Structures are given as C-alpha cells and as structure tokens.
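for ur thesis appendix - o-succinylbenzoate synthase. copy paste whatever u need, i formatted it the way the template wanted (i think)
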Amino acid sequence: MSDDTRLRLEHRSFSLPLERPLETASGSIEHRDGFLVRVFDENAAESNRGEVSADSERVIGYGEATPLAGFTESRADCEAALERASDALPPSGPEAALEEVDQQPAARHAVTLALADWHASTSATPLYRYLGRGPMVARIPVNATVGDADPATTAADARTAADRGFETCKVKVGARSIEADVERLRQVRDAVGPNVELRVDANGAWTYDEALRAIEAFADLDVALVEQPLPPGALEGHAALRGHGVGIALDEGLLEHDLDDVCTAGAADAIVLKPMALGGIDVARRMAAWVSELGIEAIVTTTIDGVVARTGAVHLAAAIPNVAPSGLATADRLAADLARDPVLLEKGAAVVPQTKGLGVTGVWEDA
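the 3d part is after this line
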C-alpha cells in the first residue's frame, strides 16, 4: 500500500429471507441479517479535476458481516464494532481498524475480507491466489446440505442433490429421536445409492450415549462423517467417539477450544471452518494449514451467508490444497441475495471465479 493511500470503510445493513426455514437441532433459521462493507482509497476516489469518481472507476473491496446466534457476536455488537473500525481506518490505517473488530468475529470477517478483496483487486489477482500464492484452481468439490424433515422428504431432497451431480450429501440430524434419524438416513442411502458420500450434522444435540448409539447405526449405512455430535465443550467425549466406524468433525467446538487443544486431545478427524464464525478467511486458512500437517481434513462451509461472504468462502477453499467437499452450495437457500452470484455450481463442484479479487460486482448498488 503506497504512502498516499487513505482507505475508507463504509457499511450498510441488509436482510435476506430464506427460501424456506432451515430446521436444525439449534432451531429454525428464517432469514439472515447483516452488514455489507466496502473499502476504497479516498485519494483515488477523486479525479484530477477534484470530482468524485463513480464506483465503476475505482477499486473497491467488499466484505460481509452476517452474525448468527451461537456462532458470532450479536447484530448490535457487530454494528458497533464496524462503526469503530470505520472511524479508525482513515486516520490510523488497517491495523487500527482490525483492533476495533478483534473480538467480534462477524465484524472482523467483514473487514478482513474487504481489505483482502481490495488488495487482490488492486493487484489484478483472484482472491484465492492472493491468499495462497498457489497455482490456478478451476473448481472445488462441494457438498449438498439437506435440512431436517420427515424420512420421505429427506430422501427426496438427497436424491435431487445426487441427480444434480453432488457426490457428497450432508443431512441435518439431532432434532428427532435417534431411531427417527437412523430411519431418515436409511431412506437417504436407499435413494442415493452406494456411491454418494453421506455426512450428518448434529449441531451438538446428543449425549455421549446417544451419539455412540447413532454412530454405530450410521456406520452400517456407510456414513463417512458426523459433525459436532456432542456439545462444544465435550472435547474428551469427541475423542472417545472416534474409531467407531464414522469420522468425527468439530464445528462449534472450534469456537470453544484452541485448535492446539483439539489436536492434542485427538478429538477430530476433520474440522469445519466457518470463516464468519472464526473471524475471517485469514484465520480459517491458517487453521487449515495447521491441521493438514496432522492428517486432519479441512472442510469449508458458510453460515448461510450472502453472496459476498459465500464467494469469499469459495476462494478460501480454493486456497487450501486438497480441500474436502465443502458446504458452499447454499445460495439456493436464499429467496433474495446481495448481487449476482459469480460462482457457477456444476456437477457437484463450484467453479472458482478467475477475475480480480472476489469477482462480485454490483453489490453496493443492489444492497
């Protein structure tokens, strides 16, 4: 960044309704409310004649803060942090702005994503290559997510996903009895056949005995992975559940325990990286690099976010070597979005944007 650069940060609120409520063990999600953030160089925003340039004529970095109860700060705390960052950035620079959002993960996600998008766009580099400095990546594998529903509906949704080319399907469990969830998974397996990888996500709904009973039944259905079977604090319990035929992934547990403690306890076969909840794509990428040295899989997913955060997660996944099929095919869960989606889903894969930065355009005008 040159000495004459003076970055400015602005934010505005949005509300995105879901196409239909997403039922999970933690409750129903009906809409996603958050803040769109943009960063630009105030000095470059003016032409030589002193006139303000149009957005189309200047480099803008976009970020998104979409808080989610149980994962991030509240909406009010997020907004307050963004306001502090907006006040801090022009006079003191990016480090000062980041200090203002350091304890608020959704706000930090937005600011770091906007700054990264601005830097990548300024250097005419796709965001994933700016993050990872690695080779070009054309596409990344993604999984379909199926919410809680009766067995027939769950199986039909999974079959639809398989017909669309998804080779991995994640089913939400934990809101019903173990027996009911096992029956749902049995019908799903019958519907998709033996070649589709199945995962389940319990969102910490079970006791240890319930989780063990479910895992033993799921193993007979060739379920590959169960996400967060126990509450986030149960690190030793998750370690004890490993080795029973189904891999264990931690999601919410990463918000309560240091990654070093997770690895030391041997509590996970995989970790689920939600950039919004972890405080940014930079944090998530460092965690992925760490666990890869230990043979632990990294899965990138969203918290049902708008197109800016969702595209950022796609670039994050593209910057992680050998990333596992990730939960990024969530655009169709929104009834409305912030802008046109630049990510094409094709045969169970996300086609990674190769334009500069995020590749999201028209977002501020449509917010």
